[in-house]
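Let's do one together. I've listed all components of the complex below, 539 residues spread over two lines.
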Amino acid sequence: MLTSFGIINYLSAQSGPWWKVFYDFTSLTKNIDASLHNTMSPFWTTVTELVIVGVLFILFYAVIGLFLVYAERKVCAFIQNRLGPNRIGPYGIFQTVADLIKLLFKELIPIKNADHFLFNLAPYIVIIVNFMVLAAIPYALGVHAIDLNIGIFYVIAVSSMSVIGVLLAGWSSNSKYSLLGAMRSGAQIVSYELSVGLALATVVVLAGSMQLSVIVEGQRTGWFIFKGHIPAVIAFVIYIIAGTAETNRGPFDLAEAESELTAGYHTEYSGIKFAFFYLAEFINMFIVASIAATIFFGGWMPLHFGANNGFNRIMDFIPPVIWFFGKTFFLIWIIMLFKWTFPRLRIDQLLTLEWKYLLPINIVNLLVMAFIVLMGWHF
Amino acid sequence: MRSIINYLKDIFLGVRSLLKGMKVTSKYFWSPKSIVTEKYPENRKTLVMLERSKGEVIMPHNDKNEHHCTGCGICQINCPNGSIEVISKIIDTEDGKKKKIIDKYIYKLGQCTFCGLCVKTCPSNALAFSTKFEHAVFNKAHLIKVLNKPGSQLMKGVEQ
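Okay, and this is what the predicted structure of the assembly comes out as:
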């Protein structure tokens, strides 16, 4: 009620057409903030704002999760020359809802000698970690929940905590196959985090700051993948490969390969807890794609070349929200293409790829990028 | 130095093969014409089944209501779960000899595994597969079929 008061305030006080809000959300959020401050004490204002942002993020998580599960099945089907879900709802868009209802009805089987507290805690850890990372990403101009000055560092640090969830799930299932799957998955995630961190550090060197809003602002004259030419492209390729490996997806999904380890660390989970792991995997993929879109392709910044010319003004015509989601969904499409094109990697091939190929190239690339930034040989 | 060159060559060739693979899959993704799914039952009127698809075993009869089945029973021996029963009878021919011909050819569609051994091993090529696949019935007795039509007889010239 109070936020709608703020929205009405904003709408009656604006100076341009109503769709200007999509280009710059800061005036809308400032108005809501001011109207809340006028009616409540600062403490309760903060609480209300936190609740509003929390509810919005939960809704966003659920909607994106549902959409990504449907998109994965459709993309997979089109690649394999078939149709995918097409019966439930027009073009099968309600398929995920039907799956969710089915999972809600399933029996939650408690395991006899398992550690019940850890068993129940594990899915929540991965979900909480996902929320913490989602909060730090800039979605549009003015829509940025937490703008830390150590933005990228925070993202890497927090996303490393999902390993705890995986290992807990494998250990507390009291089953040797789950434990083996969790061990393999843990080794894989920890190895590839190195590559992710170094690839992101390469871009931080180019940008000069770890704060995500500064990184996006710095791409106003051109995206970093064009500005830092060779090392940025190599860093992008390494980041995409290491990112899909870190989320246990694509050709790196040995830990949950259905025919080899039953279902790996989430074998013993049924019903809604399994749905949490499944959803967390897709949201992880969304996070990897959105971080790549933010630091390599400019986040919500439209495609600009140079400063202040007609081309930039044409590109500015499209709202930043659409730019952001367009880039993210393009990268998600590429990650899905990885999964359905390449055969699965064995565990030793996986670790060879990381330690013998990706890591040395990453280190050399970082040196090259630092050299280029020092000599000023970037755009 | 050699090992560094080999290393870089490995990487280059690997990345090139990966990109070739991704080109193929993205080509399939962007061409909706390559979709082979048939939207049954909406396309029942225009549905054309492939001629080798196995729907049901039939005994083809020609215009004069003649078939090729001599009643030898080889198909019954070869059927893995006994879905065929050949009932034959002895009749007298014109020149006084006794001949065995087929009386009833019982084919249990509900039990058939569609392995095709009966069609393959028949020495007179009396059996064939038809492409009709909509067999659901409400009464199980309708699944026991008699394949030779009433009043039909063995075509002249099919060897005994």
